[in-house]
Design brief:
Layout lengths: L1 H37 L17 H16 L42 H24 L3 H17 L35 H19 L5 E3 L2 E3 L1 H15 L24 H4 L12 H4 L30 H4 L3 H14 L4 H6 L1
Antiparallel strand pairs: 1-2
Bound molecules: 2-acetamido-2-deoxy-beta-D-glucopyranose (3 copies).
Length: 346
């Protein structure tokens, strides 16, 4: 307690707010940059240059993370490579005479929430816009674009006419903060969404600083260089991938030790079963690990005291989501090679 932890908490919040503010700036700059070129203003663009050397750790993790989108697809699956997934939601929207069969289930249940899906599409498209070349360098650009289209196909159909949008809202979970050790920690429920999103934005901001040749920024009396922001981004990614007191990777399928009791209907029910809606609780309550691996799932993550209870009924820690996947894909794309901007300006 006392001054120190409070000011730490403040600085953490401040950092989160700064990186969030950058979202708006980055979108404006990116859009402007594109339209400037199209209008032929003749202003020189920052040259992104070729992606640098590939970092195997982040490249492997990116390949794993990208797979979760496939596990979440609704509708008639195309080139499905997941043995335990099949077609679903084929009649969605039929009551309204709309084809809402595509889109993605947002988390462990069979729910297609509009706002999380829109968030996922926004972050994913943003990551592609910023780091598409990095994704391409490790053959992950096409899968990313394919997943994005799977969502936008749904969203476009869900918006059949002006002022009409078929959506479902998601209630907010309570959040609190206490800036803690290595991991930025904001909320007990799905805690990893915050550090991973902050890390993605920090990596991006670091690249923008390099591109605009900004030497440093100040936060709460501290000065941060682009390399500091990138270091922070890496620290959060490394924590998620296993560099933590639990020695656990929170990205399912990455590393040797990852969650086995992911709160995920498809992963916890044997593929040859076809239970009714509420029959699934039989498997939820089972003490056996999931029969199917929800590869690429980024689970909710640890408590503030750095413990993780790997239990299917513990959804605040063990449930993955597509919006988690969008931010981890963004973060890993930014780290997958040494930033091209770094090369250009050092
Ligand atoms: C860690 O925190 C959780 C959630 O606050 C709590 O339930 C659990 O008992 C704590 N574990 C330890 C070892 O302190
Ligand atoms: C959740 O599961 C764990 C172990 O699988 C069990 O010990 C605990 O009692 C369960 N809690 C609830 C609320 O069902
Ligand atoms: C990236 C991009 O679109 N570059 C274009 C910008 O505009 C010039 C001149 O119109 C084109 O030659 C570039 O290909």
């Amino acid at each position: 307690m006392g001054e120190k932890s409070r000011s730490k908490g403040f600085c953490g919040w401040f950092l989160v707010l700064i990186v969030l503010a950058v979202v708006v700036a980055a979108i404006v700059i990116t859009v402007k940059k594109r339209s400037d070129n199209h209008s032929g203003s003749g202003k020189p663009e920052p040259v992104p240059g070729p992606p640098g050397a590939i970092d195997k750790k982040y490249s492997d993790a990116l390949k794993v993370a990208m797979k979760f989108f496939d596990a979440q697809k609704s509708g008639k699956l195309v080139n499905n490579e997941i043995s335990w997934r099949g077609d679903s939601g084929l009649k969605d929207g039929s009551e309204a005479k709309l084809d809402l069969s595509k889109g993605m289930y947002d988390a462990g249940d069979h729910m297609k929430f509009g706002f999380p899906m829109a968030f996922t599409a926004t972050v994913l498209s943003w990551a592609i816009l910023e780091y598409g070349d990095q994704m391409d360098a490790v053959n992950e650009l096409e899968p990313a674009q394919d997943s994005l289209k799977w969502i936008t196909d749904y969203l476009i159909n869900a918006h059949p006419s002006e002022n009409v949008l078929y959506i479902q809202d998601l209630s907010q979970h309570h959040c609190f903060f206490n800036a803690g050790g290595g991991l930025i920690w904001v909320s007990e429920w799905n805690c990893l969404q915050h550090p991973v999103a902050s890390a993605f934005l920090a990596a991006l901001y670091s690249d923008y600083m390099l591109t605009s040749q900004t030497a440093s920024i100040s936060c709460d009396g501290e000065t941060y260089k682009p390399s500091d922001l990138r270091k922070f981004a890496r620290s959060q990614a490394d924590y998620v991938l296993g560099k933590n007191p639990m020695k656990m990777s929170f990205l399912v399928g990455y590393g040797d030790n990852y969650p086995q009791f992911v709160h995920h209907r498809g992963a916890s029910i044997p593929a040859d079963e076809s239970p009714g809606c509420t029959d699934g609780f039989k498997w939820l309550d089972s003490t056996d690990p999931n029969p199917n691996i929800a590869e690429g799932a980024l689970v909710g993550g640890p408590f503030q005291n750095e413990t993780y209870i790997d239990s299917r009924n513990n959804s605040m820690q063990t449930e993955p989501s597509t919006y988690n996947s969008a931010v981890i894909v963004g973060l890993l794309s930014s780290l997958v090679t040494t930033s091209s901007a770094v090369k250009s300006f050092t």
